[in-house]
Write a structure and sequence with these properties.
about 325 residues, alpha/beta, Nucleotidyltransferase, domain 5, five-stranded mixed beta sheet, 13 strands, about 40% helix, about 20% strand, binds zinc ion
Length: about 325
């Protein structure tokens, strides 16, 4: 019998839910606000309500669901279904989210890191497990990722592996939100792109980027720089090319360490397409060991905004298949 699973993606501003078949087909969806600033109780109520929305807009009864999978940013203890710490959810420390959701809906519930689960989703439902070694990267305000190694999600001892956005790329680089210096995401994320654009505009660079932001320096973001680049703005193109360069430096490290067959790049910044991919791939070809560089394909991710939600579903299916009792309840 075809299993039905409910996937949840808890973001900093939005919650997305979906009822999904065992083959990864979305049957119904729910959307809600996270209201993270309103505190933990409100966020949890919003998660409940958004789960209810996806169920009520499907023709599926709660009792027909095999499980609930939740993807959340931050340090997640998957074994115990706990959010240890989340940058998206202020004040959350050691929150037993798996337990809480399990108690409300009374079906097996599993919790994981959103970027790691996204890798799992892309692998299972995107490339349909056609490769055994895959790295998924999401480039947006920061850089996150997940690693499929020899046909399994690589988790590390505590489940905290895959924080690739925080590998040091420049020992003298900018300070990162994590406290370290010169992390990959301080140089190759959408935030890094916007910061560099603002810096150069303030220094009097000749560019139309500010016009695309309606003259408001505070509104200069990666999207605005991309719009200017598409209209031929020279600085915008240079900045994206520089971003691609730094992206390529980090990719080179990953290619040398993991020798993956496939690297999939998702997240808002990946929508820049070839403007970003070409310089990044060029750096990998120049810098990585030739055998690894020639055997890897670097491509846009396949599942768009659904990678984490489908990854959460894949995580439930894997746990059920293993007969795991991990559900925090
Ligand atoms: Zn960092």
């Amino acid at each position: 019998m075809n299993k039905l699973v409910l996937g949840v993606d808890v973001g900093g501003t939005k919650i997305a839910t979906a009822v999904v078949t065992g083959e990864g087909k979305v049957i119904s969806r729910g959307y809600g606000s996270t209201s993270a600033q309103a505190g933990r109780r409100v966020v949890i109520d919003n998660i409940f309500a958004t789960i209810d929305k996806a169920i009520s807009s499907s023709n599926v009864a709660l009792s027909q669901l095999s499980g609930i999978g939740i993807a959340a940013a931050g340090i997640i203890d998957s074994k115990n279904g706990k959010v240890i710490f989340s940058p998206n959810l202020p004040g959350w420390r050691e929150v037993p989210l798996g337990d809480t959701v399990h108690q409300r809906f009374n079906i097996p519930t599993y919790l994981g890191n959103d970027a790691s689960l996204a890798a799992l989703g892309e692998w299972r439902f995107g490339v349909k497990k056609q490769v055994a070694n895959l790295i998924y990267i999401t480039v947006s305000t920061g850089i996150g990722g997940g690693i499929i190694c020899n046909g399994e999600l690589y988790t590390g001892v505590l489940g905290a592996a895959g924080e690739i956005g925080h590998m040091t790329i420049d020992v003298n680089g900018p300070r990162c939100n994590c406290g370290n210096i010169g992390c990959w995401e301080t140089l190759a994320s959408g935030t890094a792109l916007a910061k560099e654009a603002v810096r150069q505009i303030k220094e009097g660079a000749s560019t139309s980027i500010l016009e695309f932001a309606g003259g408001d320096l505070a509104k200069v973001d990666a999207k605005v720089v991309f719009e200017a680049a598409k209209q031929g703005d020279k600085l915008a193109n240079q900045l994206i090319s520089r971003l691609g360069y730094y992206l390529g430096v980090g990719l080179t490290n990953l290619v040398n360490i993991f020798n993956p067959e496939l690297i999939l790049i998702g997240g808002g910044v990946a929508k820049m397409g070839n403007l970003l991919f070409e310089p990044a791939i060029k750096v990998v070809k120049e810098r990585a060991f030739a055998t690894s560089a020639t055997s890897v394909q670097i491509k846009p991710a396949l599942l768009g905004d659904d990678s984490s939600i489908l990854g959460a579903v894949a995580f439930v299916l894997d746990n059920l298949a293993e007969g795991s009792t991990i559900h925090g309840g």
